[in-house]
Amino acid sequence: MKNPYLPLPMRLVKHFVETEDNLIHTFTLEFLKEEDEKSFRYLPGQFAEVCVFGVGEAPFGIASSPTEPGHLKFSVARVGVVTTALHQLPEGTILGVRGPLGNSYPIEEFKGKNVVIIGGGFAFTTLRSLVTYILHPQNRGDFGKVTVIYGARNPGLLLYKEELAAWEKRTDIELVTTIDRPVEGWSGRVGFVPAVTKEVAPSAENAYAVVCGPPIMIKFTLPVLEELGFPPERIIMSLENRMKCGIGMCGRCNVGNKYVCKDGPVFTRAQLNQLPNEY
Amino acid sequence: MSVRDFLLTREGLHSWLSRLARDYPLIAPVEEEKGVITFKQVGGPQEIVFDCAPSTLPPKEWFLPSTEELFAFSTAGGGITLQEPPGPKERVLFGLHPCDVRALLALDPVFGGTYPDPYYLGRRKATIIVALSCTKPGPYCFCPAVGGDPVVAAGADLLLTESGSSFAVKAMTSRGEEIIQRYPGHFAPDEEGRGERARQELAGQLAGMFAFLPDLRGVKEFLDGHFELPYWEEVASRCLGCGICTYTCPTCHCFDIFDQSWDGARGLRARCWDSCMFSQFTRMAGGHNPRPTQKERVRNRFLHKLKYHQDRYGLGGCVGCGRCVAKCPVNIDIRRIIGDLKELASHG
User: What is the dihedral of CA A259, A263, A266, A270, to 10 degrees?
Assistant: First the structure.
C-alpha cells in the first residue's frame, strides 16, 4: 500500500523573489528520484502539499505546467509558519512534496473551445500553469481563442513578468494586464479586473471562463461574466480552504458535503451554487 | 454448513479471555478511575468491565490514536530519510458494543477511499473484534433511532450475548470462526438455536428501556433543503466550543498534522485529533475563516452527523451512543436537536 503521507524528496533549485513587495516568492523544485518525477503526473489546477521538514507542510497550487518536465514551481505568499520558513530557505535545501492532489481544470472540456482566463493578484499561479499548458506547441491547436485578463494593484505586484512580456508578443493569445491606479511607464490598462473584463467583453460563445483571484474580485467579476452570457456551468473557479491531509480525511476543508481537497479545488459556478457559502 | 453459533459458560468465557490475553494483546473496557471506562490492554478477565453501558470514551483510539507518528525524518548526509513506524501486531478488541462496531464501519470508507490510509487500515486489519450485546442501555443511548440495534453487530468477528448463566456466541466472519477453532474445549455448538432466541428475547426487553428515541425520519431531507436556519444560532448561543462532543464521538475523525523537531535535522511528523468546534480549525493563514462563529461550527458538526456523512458514504454519521449528550457541559443534546429539526420540518 502506498503511503499518501510520505512526501517525495525534492531539491529547491531556484528561489526567486516574485513581487516587489517581497511577499511572493517562487520556488522551483527538482525531484531527487527519477521514478518520482515519472510518477508525478499532474494537470493544471491541481495542488500539492509542500513541506519544510521540521516545520510542517502547506498546500499550494502547482504553478508549473506538465509541459515543463523535470521540475515543479510554486509561488508562495508569506503569511504563516510554513510559508515564512519557506521564504528563508537557501537554494539547495531538500523539501518534501505530496501530490499531485485534487482535481484539475477541465482541460478536456476546454478542447475546441475559447478559453477566457481571468486572474487577480497572486492567485495567478495555477492560471500560469493553465496558460503555459495551452500555449505549448503540442496543445495549442486543441483550443480556440485564448484571452487572459490579469490585474494587480501595481506593476510590481504582477507575477511572472517575463512570461507576461513573452505572451504579449504572441499572436495566439490575447493578454490584457491591468493595474488599479495609473503609474508612469505603464502601457497596460488601468482599472479593476471586473471593469476591465466588461471593457474587453470576451464573447461567451463556445467559451469557458476560468476565474481566480481575491474574493472581492470574484464577487464583482461573476456578474460581469453572467452579463456577457457565460452560463454557470462554464464558469470555472478554484477554492482555497484550510487543509492538512489533502486527501479527504482530516475534515477541515469541507464546504457542505464536498471536500475542497478531494472533490475540488476546481468547481464550476453551477456546482458552487449548490453548496453553502463556507469558503 | 458450518456451525456459526456457540455457547460459552461464564467460566468458559473467563478462561478463554485469559488465554486470549496470553496469546494476543487483549484490549477491553476497564474502569480507569471511578466512573471512567476506557479501552485498555488487559492482563486478564478480572480487569474487564462487562457491564453494559457505553464506555466513557469510544475504542476509536485503537484505530486512530489521539496522537500518532506518521514518520520520522532525518536529513543526515545531505539527503532525506523517512522512516515509517512499525505496523501493529495482531490483537483482540473485546467488549465493543454494537454502536461502536457500527462507528468503525462508518469510519472505514473515510480512511479506505481513493487514498487508503495505511495507519488506520493497518490497525483495522490487525484487530479481531469481539462485540458484546448490550444488556441495558445507558441513560443517553438512542441507537435504535439512528438505525442501530443493541444486539446486532455486523462488522464484528464475533458477537457475544449474555443469556442467563452463559453467553451465546455468534461467529460473524471466517476470522471469527477461526478464533473459535483455535480454542477448542471452550465453545459448545449451539444446535438448538438458543443464541438466536436469547438475542431476540434481549432485543424485546431492551426495546422499552431507551429514555428518549427521537424520530429521524425526514430530518435529512429537511436539512438537504435548509442550510440557513435561525435555529443554529439558538444552539450555538449555548455552545462553549470545548470540543468534548468530538472527543467522545466514535465517528469524529478530524485531525491535525504537525512536525516536531529539536534541531531541524531530525524529527517526526505526527497527527493528532482536532475538532471542528475550534475556531482555528478552518482559519486560514491569511486570517480568513469560512466558519467564523460558533453558529457555523455547530451547524457543521450536526450536518456532518445527520447529512454530510450520509451524502458521502451512504452511512449515518451518528450511531446513537449518546456520549456527546452525556459529556456536553451545557446539555446540547443531539436527540433533542433531531427532535427540534423534525418539528421545524413539520412546520415547513
Answer: -90
Q: Are A56 and B115 within 8 A, CB to CB? A: no
CA A72 from centre of chain: 13
Nearest CA in chain A to B227: A276
* pLDDT for the residue B1: 38
Indicate yes or no: CB of A251 within 8 angstroms of CB of B254: yes
Please indicate whether, in this complex, the C-beta atoms of A80 and B285 are within 8 angstroms of each other.
Answer: yes
- The pTM score is 0.95
Q: Assess whether pLDDT exceeds 90 at residue A91.
A: yes
What value of ipTM does the predicted structure carry?
0.93
Report the gap between the CA of A128 and the closest CA in chain B (Å). 22
Question: Given CB atoms, is B115 within the 8 Å cutoff of chain A?
Answer: yes
Q: For residue B78, what pLDDT is reported? A: 78
User: Is 90 exceeded by the pLDDT of residue A265?
Assistant: yes
A233 φ/ψ angles, rounded to the nearest 5 degrees: -70, -20
Give the percent of chain A with pLDDT over 90. 98
A93 Cα to chain B: minimum distance (Å): 9
Query: Which residues sit opposite A71 in a β-bridge?
Result: A30
What is the rounded CA–CA span in Å between residue A234 and residue A204? 9
Instruction: Parse chain B into domains and list their residue ranges.
Output: 5-207, 219-346
CB contacts, 8 Å: B78 with chain A: 94
Give the pLDDT confidence score for residue B101 in this predicted structure.
97
CA B250 vs CA A164, A204, B32, B57, B221: distances in Å: 53, 50, 19, 8, 24
Chain B partners within 8 Å of A4 (Cβ): 115-117
Q: Collect all residues with Cβ–Cβ distance below 8 Å to A88 and sequence separation of at least 6.
A: none
What percentage of chain A has pLDDT greater than the value 70?
A: 100
For the segment B141-151, the average pLDDT, to the nearest whole number, is 95
- Are A54 and B258 in contact (CB < 8 Å)? no
User: Are B259 and A278 inside 8 Å of each other by CB?
Assistant: no
Q: A-chain residues within 8 Å CB-CB of B260?
A: 54
Tell me: the pLDDT tens digits for B84-111?
A: 999 999 999 999 999 999 999 999 999 9
What are the structural domains of chain A?
A: 8-101 (2.40.30.10), 107-238 (3.40.50.80)
A:B CB pairs within 8 Å: 125
Contacts 24+ apart (CB under 8 A), B239-244: B239/B277, B239/B294, B239/B297, B239/B298, B239/B330, B239/B332, B240/B329, B240/B330, B241/B277, B241/B278, B241/B279, B241/B294, B241/B297, B242/B277, B242/B329, B243/B275, B243/B277, B243/B278, B244/B324, B244/B327, B244/B328, B244/B329
Contacts of A77 in chain B (CB under 8 A): 286
B115 to A7: CB separation less than 8 angstroms, yes or no: no
Q: How far apart are the first and last CA of chain B?
A: 54
